[in-house]
Design a protein that fits this description.
The protein has 45 helices and six strands. The protein is mostly helical. 44% of the residues are buried. The structure holds one DNA strand. Keywords: Repeat. GO terms for molecular function: RNA binding; zinc ion binding.
DNA sequence: GTAGGGTTAG
């Protein structure tokens, strides 16, 4: 034990500095093994008061009446009643009726009717039971309210969430010449904290400094630190802390909390480490903070050290400390340890359950999360709104619609269906489970004009996620009209909606609006812009934004790489990858996938293989079936169908339908009907609901003129109730996005579009181009192109977004249309952009499409 | 009159 303590002292101060080195060492040898049982102290029997603090005794209206009667009797007998008797009654009575009875009694008594001290107590009592209006009325009846009366009134408003009124009341005090004291100021500081208003924070700080001896009033200092933390100003929090003499534990705890709230975990820990040397002993609050700091950093070895520090402190673990432990372990990646504390700790409350459920949900253990929710109810703990948010998130991740609907019922039963947070979670759940209609219902029923921007943004994202980019933009406009103020997150979601349908002009307009409204282009917003420009075929703009961003995260790098690969600039992708290396960013699985995509779009087999090798041997990344899929795709396209089939069959990932889909795609290109059918069977065996094999086979049969096969396939797909995603195309003309496809129905310029297409067909035939037989009439991408051509001046480039892949016929024809019209035409399908060139009727994909 | 554990759209 002694030796251990020595080592602990050695490790403590460097707690977080070692994070990089120890990230992967889940068993810290210094603290494991038989010499100390880390878990023993968690289960120590709690004292009753640890978990169920005694509620102050409250008197019912009946009790109060009895007591008042005896006071009256006493008054008549002796002619004297101690006002303290009333004060004590007021402090004990918990409900409004009782308070009203006492108030009536006081106002009818000759002796106490105008007694300021008693009335102050009445105001306070009303405030405590949530009756701000009554408190205000009683206050108005006080003839000369003093600073105590005012402060009590301020506290009543503060306790009930009316923080702005607190500031207003302070102004009234000033006008009337009543000087606030330290307690008044502390109350106002609390209100400013809740408002998070930095300007007000500076004002009240100045005032506190002018009114009180700040360096000696440690309570005021503590309140100020917390206020600055909530206003996001760590600098002034530190200034106040440093200037304070006689710092007590609460003050240090407030400073640690400030550091954590603003993300300075290293400073939080170094402040923790200075507590004991300064002669103070950390308490449960301090440790709960330390655990939160470790949870934020997510380093498991630090978590173990922190836990050990607590055990050595001999403090009794209460429910908050244990819950913080559960949270810390689960956020440091050890659900086992989290569960160990959770299972052993007594007195779990709703927060404890929420933490454990969130732990499972965030690691993707959705079944366990849902199971825990059931156990929680069985244990008799009532779920709250955070429980529902966590559980709904699990349903979203698992795409478990049935469970989601069940939880929705529980939400209604528990009365949380008016909570905006829960509503947003419901919207997200339904949209993630593919039930957009339910998401829209929830939105319309529960979300009103005045409701939070979060719900609107959730709905916007839900629409985009389900392929309804145009509706998302319409919702954004409606939101504007209804006066709901968009924030940065909304802008990001809206820009994503634009990206999904190729709305370049509209997306650009949102960008301008972001700038005009003074929002900063942070890394997420910048990345969404790079994505927009990349997906709209404007790699030049994407690069401009990319170079503008001073801070780039891995998603930013991956997005610019994707933009470059999507647009067929694989040389640029190579350069960017090198730049990324110089910048010190570590490539991840997505980075390599983008590189492989780039090769795949250009048919660069050897290069792809070399990237694949560097991924496994150089970067030690585990390839997913998508990486293999890319390779399979490349090899297949280059015609090595037999090898590919043997390769997939021989690997454990033969169980992944994506790979067989990829082979099927190659068989379509090379018209290998037999192998294509085999691949299609494998896909359907593994993923029976997948409609894509039918589409691809149908394309293959169409391309080789087997029209009967196309028809019987359509029949089969219909019988099996395949839900094929309906094909559609978008084109933005003059800043407006137009949709083409079955769903969109006839366009108002339908006749003119038809005439244009016929004209092109004739022209192509004259030039000797024989289009392959087109079984479904004009495909939507051609309708979109024809519309673009007749609605914009000659020479203006056309950009079309298609939700599915183009067929061979369209790809061939668009090359000719491009040459005939002399326009640059680009079509994005999925994750690649085809840039057609008018000069030689070719496509950037080199027909590796 | 001051300090602690949870989630919230990108």
């Amino acid at each position: 034990m002694h030796g251990l303590k020595k080592r602990f002292r050695f490790s403590g101060p460097s707690l977080l500095r070692q994070q990089q080195q120890q990230r992967h060492f889940h068993e810290d040898k210094a603290f494991t093994g038989g010499e100390f049982n880390l878990w023993a102290a968690v289960v120590e029997e709690p004292q009753a008061h640890d978990y169920a603090p005694l509620a102050p005794p409250t008197l019912s209206d009946e009790d109060v009446k009895q007591k008042l009667a005896s006071l009256e009797e006493q008054n008549q007998k002796s002619g004297f009643v101690d006002p303290a008797a009333y004060v004590s009654l007021l402090k004990q009575s918990g409900d409004v009726t009782a308070l009203k009875t006492i108030q009536a009694h006081i106002s009818h008594s000759k002796r106490f009717a105008g007694d300021r001290l008693l009335l102050n107590c009445v105001v306070e009592a009303y405030g405590k039971c949530g009756c701000v209006k009554d408190a205000r009325l009683v206050f108005s009846s006080i003839r000369h309210p003093n600073v105590y009366s005012w402060t009590i009134l301020l506290a009543a408003y503060a306790q009930n969430g009316h923080h702005k009124t607190v500031l207003e009341l302070l102004r009234q005090m000033d006008l009337l010449g009543v000087w606030p004291n330290a307690v008044t100021l502390a109350t106002v500081i609390g209100a400013v904290s809740e408002l998070g208003n930095w300007d007000e924070a500076r004002k009240i700080h100045a005032r506190a400094a002018a009114t009180c001896q700040l360096t000696y009033d440690v309570v005021l200092v503590t309140a100020l630190i917390d206020m600055y933390a909530k206003c996001g100003d760590i600098f002034h929090a530190e200034v106040v802390f440093d200037q304070a003499r006689n710092k007590d534990l609460a003050c240090c705890n407030a400073m640690i909390s400030a550091y954590i709230q603003l993300g300075y975990t290293v400073d939080a820990v170094s402040t923790f480490n200075r507590i004991q040397p300064s002669g103070l002993q950390p308490n449960q609050v301090t440790y709960a903070l330390l655990f939160r700091a470790c949870a934020t950093n997510g380093v498991y070895s630090d978590a173990r050290v922190a836990h050990m520090c607590f055990i050595l402190s001999k403090l009794r673990p209460d429910v908050v400390v244990n819950t913080a432990l559960v949270s810390m372990y689960s956020r440091c990646g050890s659900l086992e340890d989290a569960r160990r504390v959770f299972d052993r700790m007594p007195g779990k409350n709703v927060v404890t359950w929420n933490v454990m459920i969130a732990g499972y949900a965030q690691e993707g253990y959705t079944d366990e999360a849902l199971q825990l929710y059931v156990s929680m109810e069985a244990a008799g703990v009532e779920p709250d709104e955070i429980t529902f948010v966590n559980v709904l998130e699990s349903c979203s991740l698992a795409e478990h619609l049935a469970a989601g609907r069940d939880i929705h019922k529980h939400v209604v039963d528990a009365g949380y269906d008016s909570s905006l947070t829960v509503l947003s979670a419901l919207i997200t759940m339904y949209s993630a489970c593919g039930s957009l209609g339910d998401a829209v219902d929830v939105f319309h029923k529960g979300v009103t004009t005045h409701s939070s921007v979060i719900s609107w943004t959730a709905m916007l994202t839900a629409l985009t996620r389900n392929g309804e980019g145009r509706s998302a933009l319409a919702l954004f406009r409606k939101m504007d009209l209804e006066g709901v103020r968009a924030n940065v997150v909304t802008f990001v979601s809206t820009i994503d909606a634009c990206s999904s349908i190729g709305a370049l002009v509209e997306g650009h307009a949102i960008f301008e609006r972001v700038i005009v409204t003074g929002h900063l282009i942070d890394v997420v917003l910048g990345t969404s812009l790079i994505n927009l420009y990349g997906k709209c075929g404007r790699l030049d703009y994407a690069l401009e934004v990319f170079h503008y961003l001073s801070f780039k995260n891995i998603v930013t790098w991956n997005t610019i790489l994707a933009a470059s690969s999507q647009n067929g600039e694989e040389t640029l992708s190579d350069e960017l990858l090198q730049e990324m290396d110089l910048d010190g960013a570590q490539p991840n699985e997505m980075t390599l996938l983008n590189m492989l995509f780039g090769c795949s779009h250009n048919g660069l087999v050897a290069k792809a293989v070399s990237y694949f090798r560097s991924m496994v041997y150089g970067h030690c990344l585990v390839p997913t079936s998508e990486h293999y899929g890319c390779l399979v795709d490349l090899l297949g396209r280059s015609g090595q169908l037999e090898e590919v089939e043997a390769f997939i069959s021989s690997k454990p990932f033969s169980l992944d339908s994506v790979l067989w889909m990829s082979l099927l795609g190659s068989c379509v290109i090379h018209s290998d009907v037999e192998r294509g059918l085999r691949a299609a069977r494998r896909v359907l065996g593994l993923d029976p609901k997948n409609a894509s094999p039918y589409v691809l086979l149908s394309n293959m049969f169409a391309a080789i003129g087997m029209l009967d096969a196309v028809k019987s396939l359509a029949k089969l797909a219909g019988e099996r109730a395949m839900k094929k995603e309906q094909s559609r195309s978008y084109i933005e003309v003059n800043g407006v996005v137009h949709e083409f496809g079955v769903r969109a129905g006839l366009h108002r310029l339908g006749e003119k579009i038809g005439a244009q297409l016929r004209e092109w067909s004739e022209e192509m035939e004259e030039a000797g181009f024989v289009p392959l037989h087109d079984v479904r009439g004009y495909h939507d991408e051609k309708l979109a192109i024809a519309f673009g051509a007749i609605s914009s001046p000659p020479g203006v480039p056309l950009f079309v977004v298609k939700n599915l892949r183009m067929c061979v016929c369209c790809h061939g024809e668009i090359k000719h249309i491009c040459k005939m019209t002399g326009r640059d035409i680009s079509v994005r399908e999925g994750n690649r952009v085809h840039h057609f060139r008018p000069m030689d009727a070719s496509c950037s994909c080199g027909d590796y499409w």
